[in-house]
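Hey, I was hoping to borrow your eyes for a little while. I've been staring at a protein lately and its backbone has me curious. You're getting the sequence in one-letter code plus the fold written as tokens. Would you mind checking whether the tokens look sensible for this chain? Here's the protein in full, and shout if anything looks odd to you:
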Amino acid sequence: MPELFGTNGVRGIANEDLTPQLVLDLTRSLSTYIEEGPIAIARDTRETGDMLKRAAVSGIQSVGLDVVDLGVVPSPNLQYYVKESEAKSGVIITASHNPSEYNGVKMVDSDGVEYNKSELEEMEEIYFDGKYDKASWDCPGRVRETNPIYDYIREIRDLINEELISEKKFKVVVDPGNGAGCYVTPYLLREIGCKVITLNSQPDGNFPAREPEPLPENLGDLAETVRAVGADLGIAHDGDADRATFVDNRGNSHMGDDSLALLFKKMLKDREGDKVVTPVSSGNKVVDAIRDEGGEVIWTKVGSTVVAHKMIELGEDCACGGEENGGVIFPDFQYCRDGLLAASRLIELLAEKEKSFYELTDELSDYKSVKTKIKVENKKEVMKKVLDKVEKMEVDANYIDGAKIFYEDKWLLIRPSGTEPVIRVFTEAKKEKEAKKLAEEGLSLIEETMED
């Protein structure tokens, strides 16, 4: 794995780990690597976003490449713009689901897909050598601004049955969590015929209402609002809106694997391919949904970039891909997570099936899952010791990404985060009590290892 880049770019506490100098040098490395522009740039709503974006722009200009500034937009909006325009690359200043004190830098190639491991390693070599190209004083790169939102909305509308959705007159509550989705999702859903009620839809990089990660424990206000107004659906995004999770019409908040399973089933029916790509953090609920439609599961390491590149490799054989955190990748649009298209297609599914989200999720296999984490500063060292212990336990396990231990009708995954100094624990079981017990066992194993 590259030294600087995690599963989704470079992240850290802004102005401490992720300084303007680091961002400037990262974009100098990118610009030197690709040699020609323009490079599109965007950010989410974080307080430090403007500061770090200015550093990124300066780095690009100093190499002599032009910049197209898209302003504050969702990550998939920038990625669509890069794919469809003359841009040779894109830079997104975002820390996605991380808390407000974090920020990050994510870089995408001319096709809108995040760079692969070998490409990032070449950029890192430039960074550590400090051998950047440099423009002469009279020809730095130029900067221009454009608004990419309208073309992006239009393309999503072209991909769905807008007439059918409009007939149903769905009432939806949209909670962008004060992130970049504020600028797009409410407007998109109104245009396809939904009655939209917004919550936390004013941009605010402090994320005052809830944490950016759209987990059920952070969506109490959304669930309460759905019940209060009698909405058909609640939609929540993370900070850059590349993910979406949902609240059903009864006010129940759902983990991302519910919508992922339903959208996988839909795409297997709508497309000719029979392969679905998902990381080892996905569980039996998702696997059962894929196999029910005659699909084949292709496992990867955790990280949307890994999933996207495997999907590209599979080509037309791939129907869909995504992660259990609510990030779905639709190959008929673009090879990146897209929370706005996921929300639109889930609403389309409700219209097609003439069933509520509650009813559709009730038809899925009934598994209970738990996600938790523990802070570990020396996570690589600790994780290596955890893996050694698991191997000595002589259990059924795979080591694609961390250690996933299989039991009858349940499993435990322990893996290091690619974006934070934590080790994550995922579990799934038929009963919630069993899933929680398994998570406690996973945390205990990590804690014991830290004490060794």
Remarks:
- The chain has a mean pLDDT of 95.
